[in-house]
Structure formats: C-alpha cells, structure tokens
Amino acid sequence: METRILGKNGPKVSVVGLGCNNFGGRLDLEATRKVVHKALDLGVTLFDTADVYGSYGYGNYGGSEDQLGQILGPRRKDIVLASKFGMAMNDAGTLKGAAPAYIRVAIEASLKRLRTDCIDLYQIHRPDPQTPIEETMRALDELVKQGKVRHIGCSGFSTAQINAAQAAAQRLNLTPLMTSQDEYSLLARQVEADPMPAIRQHGLGLLPYYPLASGMLTGKYKRNAPAPQGSRLAAAGGMTGRYLNDANWAIVEKLERFCAARGKTLLQLAFGWLLAHEFVPSVIAGATKPEQVEQNVGAANWSLTKEERDEVDRLTQRP
Fold first, then answer.
1. Which end of the chain is more exposed for a tag (fewer CB within 10 A), N or C?
2. pTM value?
3. Nearest to 150 by CA among 125, 175, 173
4. Has 102 been annotated as catalytic?
C-alpha cells in the first residue's frame, strides 16, 4: 500500500483510508470486525470515524467509535485514528457544536468509546456559527497540549472559514488545522471552487469522502434499473435523486467508455483521479463487506497521465 504524508507535517497514512460511518448502524459488531480486520490485513492505516456515526437512521449515538474501541485492541497502535465532533449527539439536537465546554465533554466521551488515550486527528465535523473560531481553536490547542489529540482538522468549512481558523492559530500561536475533509469525486467537484483555494494556500491535506458518489462510480448501478438491494442508494430515500440523475448518468457513461478503452475500471478511475492530486493524502472509502475493502485497495493503482487527466476533466464538464 502506498503511503503519503497527512497534511504538511503529519504522519504517513495509506492512500486508501477506511470510512467508518457504517459501523454501529448498518453493521453490527461482528460485521464491523470483519471489515476492520480485512482493512488492517491489507495495510489500511487511516481509519476515519465520528462520534455521531451509528446514529443516522439507527439512533446508536457513538456506535461506530464504540465498535472500533472493542475491535482494535493492540492494533490501535498500527493506525492513524481520526474522529470528529460537533454534530448533534442526541435526538433533541442540544448536544452539539464547537464551544470549548462542549469540546471538553466530547473528547472525553470519544476517548472512552474508542478505548484510547489519544486521537490522532480530531476534526470539527461542521462549522459552528454560534462559536467564535478563536474559542474553538484555543480549546483544540489545549487538547493537543494535554496529549489527548495529536492533530486537528475540519470538515465542510468554506474558504473564508479555513482562512479565519488559520489566521487565529497564527495570531494566537495555536495548533493550526492540518486537514480538510470534504465531499470530492468525479461527480462532485464543488470543492474545487470552495474551499480548494484555502486548502492549497495553507497546505492542508484534502481528505475526500463519498469518493465513489455513493456507488455511482463503482459500476454497480445502471440507468433505468433499480438500485441493487442492500446498496447505499437503495436505502437512501431522498438522497437518490442527488446521484441518480440524467446529468450524472451522462458523465458516468462517458467515463465508462474512457476506462474500457484503456482496459481499466470505473472504480480504478475514481481512486486514481483523486490520488492524482498532490494535496490528497488519502481517499476515505466506506465499506460494508470485506470484499469491498479489497476492491477499494486494489483499485488504487492507476497513475493517470496528464493527458488522461485533461481528458477526464473534459468528460466531467457539466453544461
């Protein structure tokens, strides 16, 4: 497994990371154990979870962290463990945010569930407009100094919000953001307009999530055919139209022809295109079965030429 540096001066991580959003919700403990062990066996070293994972549609707040804590054991030392805080951790929506008092509670709860004394990458899951960024950055810096967190990152921040966070860190001599986690794929390129300018300016590592557009870039879905039973989009409800639409189908079909002409798969292109960007240290891909982990790891082996990248950019242009 190829490795890259996470951000400017972070640890080395595998170029394929494991997204843990299915754990504790769609997957029970034993199903999660099989996925985690397969990832470890294949050299995956970046595991990305969040305190809220396990709750979506299942109400199992903290479920993903709890399962990882039970499963990792002595293998905890073999991985870079990333988690997030800030999304609502109760049905009433009152336990959330990035205020210092809440951060101190959230980190202790995550450490307990994960059965570890330190989280390698602790990320603000969403911007908190109610809390000045200086207060959030001070609280996170305090966790770094206490040894409870090694590095910090954000998710879903705009260019302006990243700039503000980094400016506060520099002005107050605090730990700066090292990563930005955003949706990025051949079908979702909005990040290139915002916050990409800030990511590049500050040398952050971009960690793409939904790199396969919820399966649209795996080849498993076909136009005018029902989504396969058990697939993410089969259970997505209102999200289905976000991916399964004519504009996306037109792009996917062009990309499939592009891959076929080169003896490659759409899955290989999805990973290879993202990893062709030097600011992407690792691609976070979820999995519900060990076979999916194998497929994802095996797909990250296409080094696109400049000409291929230019052609892909042309094919993915929207009207």
1. C
2. 0.94
3. 175
4. no
